[in-house]
Amino acid sequence: MDYDLIIVRYGEIGVKSPKVRRRFENKLISNIKRKLKCEIDINQGRVFLYPENFNEACEVLSKTMGVVSFSPAVSTETDFNIIEETVNEYVENLISEGSFSKENSFAIRCRRVGTHEFSSHEMAGFCGSVVVKATGAPVNLSNPDFELFVEVRDNKTYIYHEKIQGIGGLPIGTQGKVIALLSGGIDSPVAAFLMMKRGVEVIALHFNNYPYTGKSNEKVLKIVDKLNEYSPTPIKFYAAGYGEYLKKCIEDAPIRLTCVLCKSGMYRIAEEIAEKEGALAIVDGSSLGQVASQTLPNILATRYPTSMPVLSPLIGMDKIEIEEIGKKIGTLDISILPAPECTAVPQYPETNAKLDKVIEVLEEIDFDAEVKKIVSSLEDGES
Ligand SMILES: Nc1ncnc2c1ncn2[C@@H]1O[C@H](COP(=O)(O)OP(=O)(O)OP(=O)(O)O)[C@@H](O)[C@H]1O
């Protein structure tokens, strides 16, 4: 099919006040433009894209936050004779591509914006009769095999047959920045993705537990690369060397508390980076009860030293639900690549941490000084 343009629909942006809406629309357009060189118009709640390569454009739109659905379309003038010609040509192309035949029942779905001497119902009836005349296919308005969409907007009319689903959400960059704790496991990439979908710019922070895990950051960098497919700009990546701090926790604190102290340190360091980067929250992949560190007492104890909000978008999800999202967005395949387990995890990790005891231990290990040390030696850079 020789398309002229792609019609892009966005959802929640449409219900904002005009000022906010304009800002969100501009962000959506600039995000698309960062990934795709093409002319873009915006009009009456729709974005119109005029790409050179339609496959590439569809690929970009399917990974752009804020896009609810999109349709490659042909455009024509709002004139019955020209519409008849265009519908005939469109249907001919569909038949030769094998996507429609006279055996398929069909319906015309018409929308109309502007002032015209016909109703959308009349236009649908007209286009339906054109298709019947050309193909002999039966009309079925309630349960058709095939739908052809005719969208009349003032003096322009658009014809398309596909509504390709996008991710939805809000354009990245409309909701500020967060620091996402990215482990290389299954959950944290999904958590980061869900926050990106709500319009935040994510800065990734990984803790390298070497020598208690492998030395390489390769796996987590692959995950960042995958998340980059959904981001208009490359995600900034920080890697913190965490082995020395873990050694201190193991040697100088009750062994059962290692995971609690490990997580507390992550949040505190994330908070320091957030302040430097102008981020207003921390995101992690906690899911209640999934592992020892994710019980309610431990969540309270680990977050205590941090005053910044820690957002856990997976907190109420089951592992299967999380894995399904990971699969859909392409991070799961990377997350399940083999990697050494962390050997700093004690045999019996604390699942019922007592806050006053944790506070006491944090003082004993001079937590703040440890955090400072790690922050000052951070490696940062774009992934
Ligand atoms: N090495 C790490 N670097 C950065 N963040 C981490 C690291 N380890 C854990 N986290 C953060 O803490 C969250 C909870 O980690 P935990 O190890 O308790 O659970 P998990 O189910 O193994 O998480 P994941 O599947 O994301 O690895 C992770 O989702 C992630 O956000």
From TrEMBL:
<keyword id="KW-0547">Nucleotide-binding</keyword>
<comment type="function">
    <text>Catalyzes the ATP-dependent transfer of a sulfur to tRNA to produce 4-thiouridine in position 8 of tRNAs, which functions as a near-UV photosensor. Also catalyzes the transfer of sulfur to the sulfur carrier protein ThiS, forming ThiS-thiocarboxylate. This is a step in the synthesis of thiazole, in the thiamine biosynthesis pathway. The sulfur is donated as persulfide by IscS.</text>
</comment>
<keyword id="KW-0963">Cytoplasm</keyword>
<dbReference type="InterPro" id="IPR020536">
    <property type="entry name" value="ThiI_AANH"/>
</dbReference>
<dbReference type="InterPro" id="IPR014729">
    <property type="entry name" value="Rossmann-like_a/b/a_fold"/>
</dbReference>
<dbReference type="GO" id="GO:0005829">
    <property type="term" value="C:cytosol"/>
</dbReference>
<dbReference type="GO" id="GO:0009229">
    <property type="term" value="P:thiamine diphosphate biosynthetic process"/>
</dbReference>
<dbReference type="Pfam" id="PF02926">
    <property type="entry name" value="THUMP"/>
</dbReference>
<feature type="binding site">
    <location>
        <begin position="206"/>
        <end position="207"/>
    </location>
    <ligand>
        <name>ATP</name>
    </ligand>
</feature>
<dbReference type="InterPro" id="IPR004114">
    <property type="entry name" value="THUMP_dom"/>
</dbReference>
<dbReference type="GO" id="GO:0004810">
    <property type="term" value="F:CCA tRNA nucleotidyltransferase activity"/>
</dbReference>
<dbReference type="InterPro" id="IPR049961">
    <property type="entry name" value="ThiI_N"/>
</dbReference>
<keyword id="KW-0820">tRNA-binding</keyword>
<dbReference type="InterPro" id="IPR050102">
    <property type="entry name" value="tRNA_sulfurtransferase_ThiI"/>
</dbReference>
<feature type="binding site">
    <location>
        <begin position="181"/>
        <end position="182"/>
    </location>
    <ligand>
        <name>ATP</name>
    </ligand>
</feature>
<dbReference type="InterPro" id="IPR054173">
    <property type="entry name" value="ThiI_fer"/>
</dbReference>
<dbReference type="GO" id="GO:0002937">
    <property type="term" value="P:tRNA 4-thiouridine biosynthesis"/>
</dbReference>
<keyword id="KW-0784">Thiamine biosynthesis</keyword>
<protein>
    <recommendedName>
        <fullName>Probable tRNA sulfurtransferase</fullName>
        <ecNumber>2.8.1.4</ecNumber>
    </recommendedName>
</protein>
<dbReference type="Pfam" id="PF22025">
    <property type="entry name" value="ThiI_fer"/>
</dbReference>
<keyword id="KW-0067">ATP-binding</keyword>
<keyword id="KW-0694">RNA-binding</keyword>
<keyword id="KW-0808">Transferase</keyword>
<comment type="similarity">
    <text>Belongs to the ThiI family.</text>
</comment>
<dbReference type="InterPro" id="IPR003720">
    <property type="entry name" value="tRNA_STrfase"/>
</dbReference>
<feature type="domain" description="THUMP">
    <location>
        <begin position="55"/>
        <end position="163"/>
    </location>
</feature>
<dbReference type="GO" id="GO:0009228">
    <property type="term" value="P:thiamine biosynthetic process"/>
</dbReference>
<dbReference type="InterPro" id="IPR049962">
    <property type="entry name" value="THUMP_ThiI"/>
</dbReference>
<dbReference type="GO" id="GO:0052837">
    <property type="term" value="P:thiazole biosynthetic process"/>
</dbReference>
<dbReference type="GO" id="GO:0140741">
    <property type="term" value="F:tRNA-uracil-4 sulfurtransferase activity"/>
</dbReference>
<dbReference type="Pfam" id="PF02568">
    <property type="entry name" value="ThiI"/>
</dbReference>
<dbReference type="GO" id="GO:0000049">
    <property type="term" value="F:tRNA binding"/>
</dbReference>
<dbReference type="GO" id="GO:0005524">
    <property type="term" value="F:ATP binding"/>
</dbReference>
<feature type="binding site">
    <location>
        <position position="285"/>
    </location>
    <ligand>
        <name>ATP</name>
    </ligand>
</feature>
<comment type="pathway">
    <text>Cofactor biosynthesis; thiamine diphosphate biosynthesis.</text>
</comment>
<feature type="binding site">
    <location>
        <position position="263"/>
    </location>
    <ligand>
        <name>ATP</name>
    </ligand>
</feature>
<feature type="binding site">
    <location>
        <position position="294"/>
    </location>
    <ligand>
        <name>ATP</name>
    </ligand>
</feature>
